Amino acid sequence: MRFAELHLDHVRRAFGDTVALRDVDLTIKGGEFVALLGPSGCGKSTALNCLAGLLPLTGGRITLDGRRIDDLPPEKRGFGMVFQNYALFPHMSVRRNIAFGLSMRRLAKAEIARRVDEAVRLVQLEEHQHRFPAQLSGGQQQRVAIARAIVLEPPLVLMDEPLSNLDASLRLEMRTEIRRLHQSLGLTTVYVTHDQEEALALADRLVVLRLGEVQQVGSPEEVYAHPVNRHVAAFMGYRNIIPVSVTSQDGERATVHTGDGVRLAGVKREILGTQAVAAVRPEDFVVGGSGENVLEAVVEIVEYHGREQAVEARLRDGTRLHVRTGSRLAPGDTITVEVPVDRVLVFS
Ligand code: ATP
């Protein structure tokens, strides 16, 4: 059932005046785990529903190994779908929920039983297979939803925030489970999430969307370390987006000044004018450091996070700074923070 290539070609979807997807080009290879990532309203669910066939395109095309599929109804595409509300049939047992799609395909009884057995085993629900959905925990219900999707051996599995209704520890457990199933079954998975950590942990490739447009496609390492613009950076955990003026540019390196008049050196990531932003991760600041890039700030809020503290501080010009540190700080403390030059990304 494995395909070689699924291709989105100038895909567009508008709702009246709202353009949810504009001109999306993307190639997904068979066997890949692709995460569609972005803030609320960026078009992730719309993209997934267009792939599933639940929403017609208003422009462009989708092809599977060169064959056009965007004009096919969902059942003809045969993709597996897992949503955040598990959408199980409440009056059917776990087994019957999982078997439902196979029965619709009129497979032989023995074949259905064999495949349901295997799916139940894969998602570790052997003990609960005769229960009804209401008798299951959220995590167990989500396992049923996943089993129901994979039992059909679909060429593509589409998941829309499947873990968002689960509590934190179960979310981590199911995350590993989903990755394990993807690998062991050789599935091709498209996974929608607004959680960058989940996307980084799960996917072979990330597609970062903003306002219906693809901002960046790359491996987790690429997108994490080399965001292409300030929006991707902000979304990938560069919580400090400090407005600066550009003093000089020399190849890869940019020298800028903060509103406080402090000089910072960083890595130039885009063509720059006179005004720019310096993007820094909270964990890349070293409290008390001294060296080339040092800012002075006053601590305002301290959150306890076990081994670390998340600190909100302010520069003299009022710019807010987010710092993660192992040092014990208190509101009112004046601190200096240093950041290595290669940890400062300068965007237009
Ligand atoms: P979230 O993470 O909040 O679910 P999303 O990235 O999945 O967001 P979409 O649901 O794809 O975003 O929505 C993209 C844009 O399209 C939004 O501006 C949304 O308001 C709009 N939109 C989505 N569905 C409809 C609809 N049925 N009618 C009108 N506008 C819609």
Q: What would you note in describing this structure?
A:
With 348 residues, the protein is α+β, with helices and mostly antiparallel strands. The protein has two domains: 5-230, P-loop containing nucleotide triphosphate hydrolases (Rossmann fold, 3-Layer(aba) Sandwich); 238-347, Nucleic acid-binding proteins (OB fold (Dihydrolipoamide Acetyltransferase, E2P), Beta Barrel). It has nine helices and 20 strands. It has helices at residues 44-52, 74-77, 94-104, 109-122, 138-150, 168-185, 196-202, 220-225, 230-235, and strands at residues 5-15, 18-29, 33-37, 59-64, 67-68, 80-82, 157-160, 189-193, 205-210, 213-218, 240-250, 253-258, 263-268, 275-280, 286-287, 294-305, 308-315, 320-325, 334-338, 345-347. The strands form four sheets. The chain has a six-stranded mixed beta sheet with strand order 6-7-8-3-9-10, sandwiched between helices. It has a five-stranded mixed beta barrel with strand order 11-12-13-20-14. Strands 15-19-16-17-18 form a five-stranded antiparallel beta sheet, with no helix packed on it. Strand 7, helix 6 and strand 8 (189-193) form a beta-alpha-beta unit. The radius of gyration is 24 Å and the shape is elongated. The site of adenosine-5'-triphosphate has 12 residues, from strand 2 and helix 1. Adenosine-5'-triphosphate is lined by residues 15, 18, 20, 38, 40-46, 194.
In short:
With about 350 residues, the protein is α+β, with helices and mostly antiparallel strands. It has helices at about 45-50, 75, 95-105, 110-120, 140-150, 170-185, 195-200, 220-225, 230-235; strands at about 5-15, 20-30, 35, 60-65, 65-70, 80, 155-160, 190-195, 205-210, 215-220, 240-250, 255-260, 265-270, 275-280, 285, 295-305, 310-315, 320-325, 335-340, 345. The chain starts with a strand and ends with a strand.
